[in-house]
């Protein structure tokens, strides 16, 4: 099973989430990333999927993220879900293009 995927928009994301749910993946194991935090929050809330929080990345990293760029914050959050640093850097590209990234936590 895939660890992550990239989609163009929320409609495509919903389609992929529905397929994952049918295959047995739980909603709380699907984490959404978008360049803009408000967009990610709105879509995650609508689709009832997760975003990385303190429980996934720890208190120290969460506090550190308050003082860093959004790029660094997103990479750190992805890495807290098991994505390598190199993969996280590569996923910056589609995020910069306005696409959405979803990571499935196993």
Coarse structural class: alpha+beta
Q: How helix-rich are the residues, as a percent range? A: 40-55%
* Strand percentage: 5-15%
Uncertain stretches of 5 or more adjacent residues = none
- Terminal residue distance: 9 Å
Largest sheet: 3 strands, antiparallel
Cα shape: globular
**How would you state the average pLDDT, rounded?**
87
The protein's oligomeric status is single chain
SSE succession: EHEHHHHHE
The rounded Rg comes to 13 Å
Contiguous helical run count: 6
Structure description:
The protein is α+β, with helices and mostly antiparallel strands. 55% of the residues lie in helices and 12% in strands. The protein contains 6 helices and 3 strands, in the order βαβαααααβ. The protein has a 3-stranded antiparallel beta sheet. The longest helix has 13 residues, at 10-22.
Explain briefly what this protein structure is.
The protein has 106 residues and is α+β, with helices and mostly antiparallel strands. The chain has helices spanning 10-22, 37-47, 54-57, 59-65, 70-80, 85-96; strands at 4-7, 30-33, 100-104.
Labels describing this entry:
single chain, 106 residues, alpha+beta, 3 strands
Lay out the secondary structure.
Elements: E1 4-7, H1 10-22, E2 30-33, H2 37-47, H3 54-57, H4 59-65, H5 70-80, H6 85-96, E3 100-104
């Amino acid at each position: 099973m895939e660890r992550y995927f990239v989609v163009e928009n929320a409609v495509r994301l919903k389609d992929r989430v529905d397929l994952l749910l049918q295959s047995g993946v739980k909603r709380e194991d699907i984490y959404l990333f978008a360049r803009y935090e408000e967009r990610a929050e709105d879509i995650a809330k609508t689709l009832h999927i997760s975003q990385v929080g303190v429980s996934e990345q720890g208190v120290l990293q969460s506090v550190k993220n308050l003082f860093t760029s959004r790029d660094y914050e997103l990479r750190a959050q992805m890495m807290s879900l098991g994505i390598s640093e190199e993969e996280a850097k590569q996923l910056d590209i589609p995020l910069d293009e306005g696409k959405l990234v979803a990571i499935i936590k196993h």
